[in-house]
Amino acid sequence: MDILITGLLLGGTYALIAMGLNLQYGIARIMNLANGEFLVAGGFAAFWFWTAGQVSPLLTIFIVAPLAFALNWLIYVIMLRPLVMRAKSRGQLEVDAILTTFGLAFVSVGLMLAVFGGDYFSYSYLARPVTILGDTFALNRLTAAIAAAIICGALWLWLNKTRAGMSIRAIAVAPDSARLVGIDVPKLSALAFALGGAVTAVGGALISTFLTLDASTGVMFTLKALVIVIMGGVGDVRGTIVAALLLGLLETFVATMIDPGLTLAAAYLLFVLILLFRPQGLFGRRTA
Amino acid sequence: MERRTILKTTAALALALGLATPALAQDTLKIGAVGPKTGPLAGGAEVTFWPNVRLWANDVNEAGGIDVGGTKRMVEIIEYDDQTNPGETIKAVQRLATQDEADFILAPYGTGLNIAAAPIFERYGYPMVTHTAISDQIEDLSSKFPNMYFLLGGATGLSGGVVEVLSQMRDAGEIGNTVAMVNVADAFGIELAEVGKPQLEAAGFEIVYETSYPLGTQDLSPVIKGAKDANPDAFVAWSYPPDTFGLTEQAMIEGLAPKAFYTAVATAFPAYAGRFGAAAEGVLGAGGVHADGEAFKEYAARHEAVTGAKPDYWASAPVYASFQILQQAIEGAGSTDKAAVAEYIAGNGFDTVIGPVEWDENNANAKYWTVGQWQGGVFKGVASTGRDGAVTAMPKAGWE
Asked: What residues of A are in contact with residue B249 (Cβ under 8 Å)?
């Protein structure tokens, strides 16, 4: 039971890390390597508001989200749309996007270093134990997991129950055909990309309550997010959630029952197995 | 009209620069500084290394420069970011030696990066006074690289200090015999765990829980839960900065509150007390300083005034001391000849911010701090290999 809850909490953290990238990669078709940097920037904002004015990170996210949304919108429109326009195939777009966002990641790290310095930033927020079914858990992790559930749930509802969501899913499946049925692909792609950036930054703000970050830790999160998105299936919200929870449960199980030193090995074993037996990801569609 | 003014100004500027440059080049000493500004070690370097580079340059220039055989020469620092990548460290040192023609180069930051750069320092004849390299291969290194010096100590001494403190607490009846020991699965953590385990066992401690975890582990609660289930009298973690914070927070949450709680790197950072506040009281960690000594107090005040940040309570002062040694050696040798300065370093003792420094047969400073403890908001040295000013370690009274 203890393993189950700890694993679900860790899975919630992973879902926060990966959900934004899933939107950006799955729908806007941009493999955003600067994703982790936006997560760290979200964490920085939370840290700054907390130390400067004791503003709760749970309130900060309402400032971070629109800011990150606007910033990512601009990045998409200015930097990435030209790539989308000139790309002849999806493969070419992916290569271009990877190179561009790789550079963007360096610029972001440099900017954060200049603005915040390279120091570790860590603070204590909701670092209190809560007891669930006889075991103790950290309140800040629980909060983050609940927030992850709310964000993922809202995204799923929006994508599946609204007209805009349906259009976005249509873009994820077939961007060229979507245009034929009157969907404004460029606009909705930008929306998906910006939304992904906002979700990532919010995730960063929540994660910073229990993880110690510094300006150059972003790439670690990008990697983890990438693994989760590919495991779950590109462009599928359910897949990302399931993969994140699976990874959290597996790592906690291995750490508790076998050895904490083997968590990485176990995580990558799972990744390899999924790639071997279901290369399109758990919920992904086989490409024709 | 306007254009003419601009032209005139430009000409004047060019003239001024043209006149100033050769004079400047003759007078300033070019000092190279290579260290992480990005990458995994950037956080540590930004606390311990870079502020001291700036502080030292400021101190030297404020005093009118380094006295080289009667003429005062200001220092000019050339900084390079090595991205915590040994390959980049090597490239940067090479560039400093050949392109920038630096007069001297400050030792890089961290054990691995120093070892990577040592052959290049050797090849170009730069003396290398390391300040943040901790290794048990000092003997081997100093025989291979005779110009390499070590200020911060070795792994055996560091873990030996922990065993010494735990033994004292046991003899005083404050803790029992059982220890939970965990380490980060990275060079530093692995070496310390390998050295520390037999030392603990030889001192009669029983290791009731032992594990390692990968660098960058995002959830350390299984580690702390495992340790708590073993109900140890002492908890020892050979940890790196992010996990030092993570383990401490998790221990508070899980209620793992042994009388002796030790985490390694970053426990001595001001940010540790900043984050945990009163709960940090009684936490043991790697390093320590003679916190009540006038030399450290004066240094800390200057560090904060010049760089805007507090120094840490471990390697900050040795970093500064390593620069002082270089400076005193240049002044002592009365020349900027690298061989002469290296010879002066080898043959002399130095009076620095960490007290007097003498080299042992392996070019190492044999007297260094090993364990410190947060007491009353200050991280005070409780064990050393011969430094003055150690205070007695006290048992930790819970997290409240």
From this structure: 124, 127, 138, 210
**B393-to-A133, A168, B374 alpha-carbon distances in Å:** 38, 62, 9
Chain B residues in contact with A269 (beta carbon < 8 A): none
Give the right CATH number for B155-290+369-384 from 3.40.50.1010, 3.40.50.2300, 3.60.20.40, 1.10.10.10: 3.40.50.2300
pTM listed for this prediction: 0.84
Radius of gyration of chain B (CA): 23
pLDDT digits (tens, 9 = 90+) for B87-133: 999 999 999 999 999 999 999 998 889 999 999 999 999 999 999 98
ipTM above 0.85, yes or no: no
Query: Are A136 and B254 within 8 A, CB to CB?
Result: yes
Taking Cα atoms as reference points, which of B323, B285, B287 lies closest to residue B303?
A: B323
Instruction: Concatenate the DSSP letters of all residues of A104-164 into one string.
Output: HHHHHHHHHHHHH-SS-B---SS--EEEETTEEEEHHHHHHHHHHHHHHHHHHHHHHHSHH
Q: Rounded to an integer, what distance in angstroms lies between the CA atom of residue B342 and that of residue B142?
A: 13
Return the number of other C-beta atoms located less than 10 Å from residue B154's C-beta: 24
Q: Where are the domains of chain B?
A: 3-154+293-364, 155-290+369-384
Rounded distance between C-alpha atoms, residue B369 and residue B315, angstroms: 9
How confident is the model over B189-232, as pLDDT tens digits? 888 999 999 999 999 999 999 999 988 788 898 999 999 999 99
